[in-house]
Amino acid sequence: MSERHSPLDAAHRALGAKMIPFSGWVMPLSYPTGTLAEHRTCRTGAVAFDVSHLGTVRLHGAGAYDAIQRTLTNDMGKIGPGRAQYTHLLDEKGSVLDDIIVWWVGRDEFHVMPNAANTERVREAIGGDDITGSRAIVAVQGPESRRWLADVMPEAAAVGRFHVATVGWRGTTCVVAGTGYTGEDGVEIAIAAGAAPDLWEALLDAGILPAGLGARDTLRLEAGLPLHGHELGPGITPAQAGLDWVVSWTKGAFRGREALEAERKRGIERVLRGLEVDGRQPPRAGYKVMLDGAAVGDVTSGNFSPTLGRGIALAFLPPPLKAGASVSVDARGQRMPARVVYPPFVSRRH
After folding, report:
1. Is 231 a member of any domain?
2. Per-residue pLDDT averaged across 318-342, rounded?
3. Most buried by CB count within 10 Å: which residue of 150, 186, 203, 316?
4. How many domains does one find in the chain?
5. Element housing 335 (H / E)
6. Same domain flag for 266 and 186
7. Do 96 and 21 contact (CB within 8 A), yes or no?
8. Are 42 and 219 in contact (CB under 8 A)?
Protein backbone atom coordinates (compact mmCIF):
# COMPACT_ATOMS: atom_id res chain seq x y z
CA MET A 1 0.00 0.00 0.00
CA SER A 2 1.37 3.42 -0.93
CA GLU A 3 1.98 5.99 1.77
CA ARG A 4 -0.70 8.60 2.32
CA HIS A 5 -0.12 12.34 2.44
CA SER A 6 -1.85 15.00 4.50
CA PRO A 7 -3.71 17.82 2.75
CA LEU A 8 -1.01 20.00 4.37
CA ASP A 9 1.92 18.08 2.91
CA ALA A 10 2.98 20.89 0.55
CA ALA A 11 2.73 23.44 3.38
CA HIS A 12 5.05 21.36 5.56
CA ARG A 13 7.61 20.99 2.80
CA ALA A 14 7.50 24.72 2.06
CA LEU A 15 8.39 25.34 5.72
CA GLY A 16 11.39 23.00 5.48
CA ALA A 17 9.89 20.26 7.66
CA LYS A 18 11.69 16.96 8.03
CA MET A 19 9.20 14.44 6.66
CA ILE A 20 9.14 10.81 7.80
CA PRO A 21 6.99 7.70 7.28
CA PHE A 22 4.54 7.19 10.14
CA SER A 23 1.80 4.55 10.32
CA GLY A 24 1.31 4.49 6.56
CA TRP A 25 1.52 8.27 6.19
CA VAL A 26 4.28 10.77 5.49
CA MET A 27 4.19 13.37 8.27
CA PRO A 28 6.44 16.14 9.65
CA LEU A 29 8.85 15.08 12.40
CA SER A 30 10.05 18.62 13.07
CA TYR A 31 10.59 22.01 11.47
CA PRO A 32 13.82 24.07 11.30
CA THR A 33 13.01 25.46 14.77
CA GLY A 34 13.71 21.95 16.16
CA THR A 35 11.84 19.59 18.45
CA LEU A 36 13.06 21.21 21.69
CA ALA A 37 11.82 24.66 20.66
CA GLU A 38 8.50 23.22 19.47
CA HIS A 39 8.06 21.32 22.75
CA ARG A 40 8.88 24.33 24.92
CA THR A 41 6.60 26.62 22.93
CA CYS A 42 3.71 24.21 23.49
CA ARG A 43 4.37 24.36 27.24
CA THR A 44 4.55 28.18 27.30
CA GLY A 45 2.70 29.52 24.24
CA ALA A 46 0.88 27.78 21.41
CA VAL A 47 1.73 25.38 18.60
CA ALA A 48 -0.16 23.76 15.72
CA PHE A 49 0.16 20.07 14.89
CA ASP A 50 -1.05 18.45 11.71
CA VAL A 51 -2.72 15.26 12.96
CA SER A 52 -4.56 14.40 9.75
CA HIS A 53 -3.10 10.88 9.94
CA LEU A 54 -5.57 10.09 12.71
CA GLY A 55 -8.65 8.33 11.44
CA THR A 56 -12.25 9.51 11.40
CA VAL A 57 -15.08 6.96 11.23
CA ARG A 58 -18.47 8.67 10.95
CA LEU A 59 -21.53 6.93 12.38
CA HIS A 60 -24.97 8.43 11.96
CA GLY A 61 -28.55 7.34 12.22
CA ALA A 62 -30.72 5.59 14.77
CA GLY A 63 -28.34 2.66 15.41
CA ALA A 64 -25.13 4.66 15.81
CA TYR A 65 -25.30 5.12 19.58
CA ASP A 66 -26.03 1.44 20.23
CA ALA A 67 -23.18 0.33 17.95
CA ILE A 68 -20.71 2.37 20.01
CA GLN A 69 -22.18 1.26 23.35
CA ARG A 70 -21.96 -2.45 22.63
CA THR A 71 -18.46 -2.28 21.15
CA LEU A 72 -16.37 0.24 23.12
CA THR A 73 -15.57 0.19 26.84
CA ASN A 74 -16.75 3.56 28.12
CA ASP A 75 -20.36 4.61 28.61
CA MET A 76 -21.68 7.19 26.17
CA GLY A 77 -24.65 7.54 28.53
CA LYS A 78 -22.40 9.61 30.80
CA ILE A 79 -22.24 12.38 28.21
CA GLY A 80 -24.47 13.75 25.45
CA PRO A 81 -24.37 15.54 22.11
CA GLY A 82 -21.71 18.21 21.98
CA ARG A 83 -19.26 16.25 24.13
CA ALA A 84 -16.23 14.01 23.56
CA GLN A 85 -15.22 10.84 25.37
CA TYR A 86 -12.04 8.76 25.66
CA THR A 87 -12.65 5.01 25.27
CA HIS A 88 -11.09 1.68 24.23
CA LEU A 89 -11.69 -1.00 21.63
CA LEU A 90 -10.79 -4.43 23.07
CA ASP A 91 -10.37 -7.90 21.69
CA GLU A 92 -12.10 -10.86 23.36
CA LYS A 93 -9.04 -11.38 25.61
CA GLY A 94 -9.35 -7.86 26.99
CA SER A 95 -6.32 -6.43 25.16
CA VAL A 96 -6.59 -2.82 24.03
CA LEU A 97 -6.70 -2.91 20.24
CA ASP A 98 -6.98 0.87 20.11
CA ASP A 99 -7.63 3.88 22.28
CA ILE A 100 -10.13 6.24 20.76
CA ILE A 101 -11.78 9.61 21.18
CA VAL A 102 -15.46 9.75 20.23
CA TRP A 103 -16.81 13.15 19.18
CA TRP A 104 -20.59 13.25 19.67
CA VAL A 105 -21.27 15.80 16.95
CA GLY A 106 -25.08 15.79 16.81
CA ARG A 107 -28.03 13.84 18.14
CA ASP A 108 -27.37 10.81 15.93
CA GLU A 109 -23.93 11.66 14.54
CA PHE A 110 -20.60 10.52 15.96
CA HIS A 111 -17.02 10.90 14.74
CA VAL A 112 -14.94 8.04 16.11
CA MET A 113 -11.24 8.93 16.06
CA PRO A 114 -8.87 5.91 15.95
CA ASN A 115 -5.08 5.87 15.76
CA ALA A 116 -3.69 6.05 12.25
CA ALA A 117 -3.04 2.36 11.67
CA ASN A 118 -6.32 1.19 13.18
CA THR A 119 -8.98 3.03 11.22
CA GLU A 120 -10.17 0.02 9.22
CA ARG A 121 -10.07 -2.24 12.29
CA VAL A 122 -12.30 0.18 14.16
CA ARG A 123 -14.65 0.64 11.22
CA GLU A 124 -15.05 -3.12 10.92
CA ALA A 125 -15.87 -3.33 14.63
CA ILE A 126 -18.47 -0.57 14.84
CA GLY A 127 -19.55 0.10 11.25
CA GLY A 128 -19.80 3.58 9.79
CA ASP A 129 -17.93 5.37 7.02
CA ASP A 130 -14.23 6.16 6.84
CA ILE A 131 -14.10 9.89 6.05
CA THR A 132 -10.40 10.34 6.86
CA GLY A 133 -9.50 11.33 3.30
CA SER A 134 -12.03 14.15 3.11
CA ARG A 135 -10.66 16.32 5.90
CA ALA A 136 -7.55 17.50 7.71
CA ILE A 137 -7.21 17.77 11.48
CA VAL A 138 -5.14 20.51 13.08
CA ALA A 139 -4.45 20.45 16.82
CA VAL A 140 -3.80 23.86 18.39
CA GLN A 141 -2.23 23.25 21.80
CA GLY A 142 -0.65 25.25 24.61
CA PRO A 143 -1.58 27.64 27.43
CA GLU A 144 -1.97 30.52 24.96
CA SER A 145 -3.74 28.43 22.31
CA ARG A 146 -7.23 29.81 22.87
CA ARG A 147 -6.12 33.43 23.02
CA TRP A 148 -4.18 33.20 19.76
CA LEU A 149 -6.76 31.00 18.04
CA ALA A 150 -9.42 33.60 18.87
CA ASP A 151 -7.84 35.91 16.27
CA VAL A 152 -8.37 33.25 13.59
CA MET A 153 -11.48 31.28 14.57
CA PRO A 154 -13.19 32.77 17.65
CA GLU A 155 -15.91 30.12 17.86
CA ALA A 156 -13.31 27.35 17.89
CA ALA A 157 -11.38 29.07 20.65
CA ALA A 158 -14.52 29.01 22.81
CA VAL A 159 -15.03 25.22 22.61
CA GLY A 160 -14.48 23.87 26.14
CA ARG A 161 -12.43 20.90 27.23
CA PHE A 162 -14.00 17.66 25.96
CA HIS A 163 -16.78 19.62 24.30
CA VAL A 164 -17.57 19.43 20.57
CA ALA A 165 -19.05 22.10 18.29
CA THR A 166 -19.69 22.70 14.61
CA VAL A 167 -18.43 26.14 13.56
CA GLY A 168 -18.10 28.05 10.32
CA TRP A 169 -14.88 29.53 8.96
CA ARG A 170 -14.56 31.34 5.64
CA GLY A 171 -17.49 29.47 4.15
CA THR A 172 -16.36 26.06 5.42
CA THR A 173 -17.98 24.02 8.18
CA CYS A 174 -15.53 22.66 10.77
CA VAL A 175 -15.97 20.28 13.67
CA VAL A 176 -13.98 21.35 16.73
CA ALA A 177 -13.28 19.36 19.89
CA GLY A 178 -11.58 20.46 23.11
CA THR A 179 -9.17 17.54 23.01
CA GLY A 180 -5.46 16.96 22.41
CA TYR A 181 -2.44 14.83 23.18
CA THR A 182 0.02 17.15 24.90
CA GLY A 183 -1.19 17.62 28.46
CA GLU A 184 -1.91 21.27 27.63
CA ASP A 185 -5.14 23.08 26.90
CA GLY A 186 -6.29 23.38 23.31
CA VAL A 187 -8.58 22.13 20.57
CA GLU A 188 -8.53 19.88 17.53
CA ILE A 189 -10.12 21.23 14.35
CA ALA A 190 -11.46 18.96 11.60
CA ILE A 191 -11.71 20.96 8.39
CA ALA A 192 -12.42 20.06 4.76
CA ALA A 193 -9.20 19.00 3.04
CA GLY A 194 -9.37 21.77 0.45
CA ALA A 195 -9.67 24.49 3.10
CA ALA A 196 -6.94 23.14 5.38
CA PRO A 197 -3.98 25.03 3.83
CA ASP A 198 -5.75 28.38 4.36
CA LEU A 199 -6.40 27.55 8.00
CA TRP A 200 -2.81 26.41 8.53
CA GLU A 201 -1.49 29.66 7.02
CA ALA A 202 -3.84 31.74 9.14
CA LEU A 203 -2.73 29.99 12.34
CA LEU A 204 0.94 30.56 11.56
CA ASP A 205 0.26 34.18 10.61
CA ALA A 206 -1.32 34.60 14.07
CA GLY A 207 2.03 33.63 15.65
CA ILE A 208 1.31 29.97 16.37
CA LEU A 209 4.42 27.82 15.84
CA PRO A 210 4.20 24.65 13.72
CA ALA A 211 5.23 21.50 15.61
CA GLY A 212 5.89 17.94 14.45
CA LEU A 213 5.68 14.36 15.65
CA GLY A 214 8.92 14.65 17.65
CA ALA A 215 7.49 17.28 19.99
CA ARG A 216 4.12 15.53 20.05
CA ASP A 217 5.83 12.43 21.45
CA THR A 218 7.90 14.19 24.12
CA LEU A 219 4.86 16.20 25.19
CA ARG A 220 2.59 13.18 25.51
CA LEU A 221 5.30 11.31 27.44
CA GLU A 222 5.72 14.15 29.94
CA ALA A 223 1.93 14.10 30.35
CA GLY A 224 2.01 10.33 30.97
CA LEU A 225 -0.31 9.64 28.03
CA PRO A 226 -0.20 6.15 26.47
CA LEU A 227 0.92 5.47 22.91
CA HIS A 228 -0.64 2.64 20.95
CA GLY A 229 1.99 -0.03 20.27
CA HIS A 230 3.90 0.90 23.43
CA GLU A 231 1.65 1.29 26.49
CA LEU A 232 -1.38 -0.20 24.74
CA GLY A 233 -1.62 -3.24 22.48
CA PRO A 234 -1.73 -7.05 22.49
CA GLY A 235 -1.67 -8.49 26.01
CA ILE A 236 -2.22 -5.08 27.64
CA THR A 237 -5.54 -4.46 29.37
CA PRO A 238 -6.95 -1.08 30.48
CA ALA A 239 -6.24 -1.88 34.15
CA GLN A 240 -2.61 -2.74 33.44
CA ALA A 241 -2.23 0.58 31.63
CA GLY A 242 -3.72 2.42 34.63
CA LEU A 243 -6.82 3.23 32.59
CA ASP A 244 -9.48 1.12 34.29
CA TRP A 245 -11.58 4.30 34.62
CA VAL A 246 -12.22 3.97 30.86
CA VAL A 247 -14.23 0.80 31.50
CA SER A 248 -17.93 1.09 32.44
CA TRP A 249 -19.19 -1.84 34.51
CA THR A 250 -22.77 -0.53 34.61
CA LYS A 251 -23.75 -0.18 30.96
CA GLY A 252 -24.04 -3.84 29.97
CA ALA A 253 -22.11 -6.02 27.55
CA PHE A 254 -19.21 -4.85 25.40
CA ARG A 255 -16.46 -6.70 23.59
CA GLY A 256 -13.83 -8.06 26.00
CA ARG A 257 -15.92 -7.53 29.13
CA GLU A 258 -15.75 -11.16 30.30
CA ALA A 259 -11.96 -11.17 30.08
CA LEU A 260 -11.75 -7.95 32.08
CA GLU A 261 -14.09 -9.34 34.73
CA ALA A 262 -11.85 -12.40 35.09
CA GLU A 263 -8.78 -10.17 35.43
CA ARG A 264 -10.59 -8.06 38.00
CA LYS A 265 -11.19 -11.14 40.16
CA ARG A 266 -7.63 -12.48 40.03
CA GLY A 267 -5.87 -9.09 40.14
CA ILE A 268 -3.27 -7.63 37.82
CA GLU A 269 0.37 -8.71 37.82
CA ARG A 270 1.78 -5.51 36.31
CA VAL A 271 0.84 -1.85 36.11
CA LEU A 272 2.14 1.16 34.22
CA ARG A 273 4.40 3.44 36.26
CA GLY A 274 6.80 6.28 35.53
CA LEU A 275 10.59 6.26 35.87
CA GLU A 276 12.88 9.25 36.36
CA VAL A 277 16.67 9.31 36.16
CA ASP A 278 19.03 12.04 37.31
CA GLY A 279 20.92 12.44 34.04
CA ARG A 280 19.86 13.45 30.56
CA GLN A 281 20.13 9.92 29.14
CA PRO A 282 16.65 8.37 29.02
CA PRO A 283 15.69 4.73 29.46
CA ARG A 284 14.51 3.41 26.10
CA ALA A 285 11.65 1.15 25.06
CA GLY A 286 12.60 -2.50 25.49
CA TYR A 287 15.09 -1.97 28.31
CA LYS A 288 14.61 -4.14 31.39
CA VAL A 289 13.83 -2.67 34.80
CA MET A 290 15.92 -4.32 37.52
CA LEU A 291 15.45 -4.74 41.26
CA ASP A 292 17.91 -6.61 43.46
CA GLY A 293 19.63 -8.04 40.39
CA ALA A 294 16.46 -9.45 38.81
CA ALA A 295 14.38 -8.15 35.92
CA VAL A 296 10.98 -7.02 37.21
CA GLY A 297 9.58 -5.00 34.31
CA ASP A 298 9.96 -3.48 30.87
CA VAL A 299 10.30 0.09 29.64
CA THR A 300 7.61 0.91 27.07
CA SER A 301 8.55 4.53 26.16
CA GLY A 302 11.45 6.74 27.14
CA ASN A 303 12.88 10.10 26.15
CA PHE A 304 14.59 13.23 27.40
CA SER A 305 12.16 15.57 29.14
CA PRO A 306 12.79 19.15 27.95
CA THR A 307 10.74 20.51 30.84
CA LEU A 308 12.45 18.54 33.62
CA GLY A 309 15.90 18.34 32.03
CA ARG A 310 16.27 14.61 32.72
CA GLY A 311 15.43 11.24 31.27
CA ILE A 312 11.94 9.87 31.86
CA ALA A 313 10.15 6.68 30.88
CA LEU A 314 6.98 4.65 31.23
CA ALA A 315 7.33 1.01 32.26
CA PHE A 316 5.25 -1.97 33.29
CA LEU A 317 6.19 -2.91 36.86
CA PRO A 318 4.82 -5.13 39.66
CA PRO A 319 1.98 -3.30 41.49
CA PRO A 320 3.82 -3.35 44.87
CA LEU A 321 6.49 -1.00 43.44
CA LYS A 322 5.14 2.37 44.51
CA ALA A 323 6.34 5.93 43.92
CA GLY A 324 9.73 6.57 45.48
CA ALA A 325 11.04 3.02 45.02
CA SER A 326 14.60 2.79 43.73
CA VAL A 327 15.24 0.56 40.72
CA SER A 328 17.72 0.45 37.87
CA VAL A 329 17.38 0.09 34.11
CA ASP A 330 19.57 -2.26 32.12
CA ALA A 331 20.65 0.00 29.26
CA ARG A 332 22.40 -2.59 27.10
CA GLY A 333 24.61 -3.76 29.93
CA GLN A 334 24.93 -0.37 31.62
CA ARG A 335 22.92 0.02 34.82
CA MET A 336 21.02 3.30 35.03
CA PRO A 337 19.69 4.21 38.52
CA ALA A 338 16.04 5.30 38.44
CA ARG A 339 13.17 6.01 40.79
CA VAL A 340 9.53 5.08 40.39
CA VAL A 341 7.02 7.94 40.05
CA TYR A 342 3.34 8.23 39.23
CA PRO A 343 2.61 9.89 35.86
CA PRO A 344 2.13 12.57 34.73
CA PHE A 345 5.71 13.80 34.95
CA VAL A 346 4.58 17.32 34.03
CA SER A 347 1.12 18.74 34.67
CA ARG A 348 -0.53 21.84 33.22
CA ARG A 349 0.48 23.97 36.21
CA HIS A 350 4.01 23.97 34.78
Report:
1. no
2. 96
3. 186
4. 3
5. strand 334-341
6. no
7. no
8. yes
112 part of a folded domain: yes
Of 91, 146, 172, nearest to 124 (Cα)? 91
Tell me the per-residue pLDDT of 261-291, one tens digit each, with 9 for 90 and over: 999 999 999 999 999 999 999 999 999 999 9
Kindly state whether residue 12 falls inside one of the protein's structural domains. yes
Same structural domain, 35 and 171: yes
The H or E element containing residue 151 is none
Residue 274 · residue 343 · CB < 8 Å? yes
Structural domain of residue 186, as residue ranges? 4-52+132-222
pLDDT, residue 350, reads 40
CATH of the domain at 17: 3.30.1360.120
SS (H, E, C) 35-87: HHHHHHHHHHCCEEEECCCCCCEEEECCCHHHHHHHHECCCHHHCCCCEEEEE
Looking at every residue in the chain, the average pLDDT score rounds to: 97
pLDDT in tens, 234-271: 999 999 999 999 999 999 999 999 999 999 999 999 99
Strands lying side by side in the sheet with 129-130: 84-90, 96-106, 109-113, 57-60, 129-130
Q: Rounded to 5 degrees, what are φ and ψ at 286? A: 100, -15
| Burial class, 332, CB count within 10 angstroms (exposed 0-12 / middle 13-18 / buried 19+) | exposed
CATH number of the domain bearing residue 311:
2.40.30.110
